[in-house]
Amino acid sequence: MALSPLFILYIVIVFSFFVTSAFMFFPKGDERVHLIFFWLACALSLLVTFINATALPASSEYTDKIILAWCGLIFTALGVIIRMLKGKTNAVANIFVMVATVYGCVGYFLFS
Which residues make Cβ contacts (< 8 Å) with residue 65, sequence separation at least 6? Predict the structure, then answer.
């Protein structure tokens, strides 16, 4: 069975998700590592949301699903806002960004 390029991309995204999630929580004492991997996780959630939303056909019967797909960015925005307000590592902000990535991945398979 041949693997489609999009399926391979999702395997890479899942691997990246686990790596960024681990480095957002586990390294203790080094704020730079948390900050770098937080922004990498934000970029990953943007990528997943973009793939999810643009994979749907642009017809009027899919408009509600396209809107739901783009709503995944709300979680990322909340995570960034919380991170900026606190000014340091915050588990709630990290979880919001992780939820956005999971929402985008699951939404790709449910909305399509």
Answer: 56, 111
Can you read off the two tokens belonging to residue 8?
């391979």
Closest CA to 43 of 27, 65, 66, 20: 20
* Tens-place pLDDT, residues 40-76: 999 999 999 898 888 878 888 888 888 888 998 999 9
- The CA angle 97-7-54, to the nearest 5 degrees, is 60
Query: pLDDT tens, 88-102?
Result: 878 899 999 999 988
| C-beta of residue 41 within 8 angstroms of C-beta of residue 101 | yes
Residue reference for tokens 């396209």: 66
Torsion (CA) 64, 39, 98, 8 in degrees, nearest 10: 80
CA 97/CA 59 separation, integer angstroms = 29
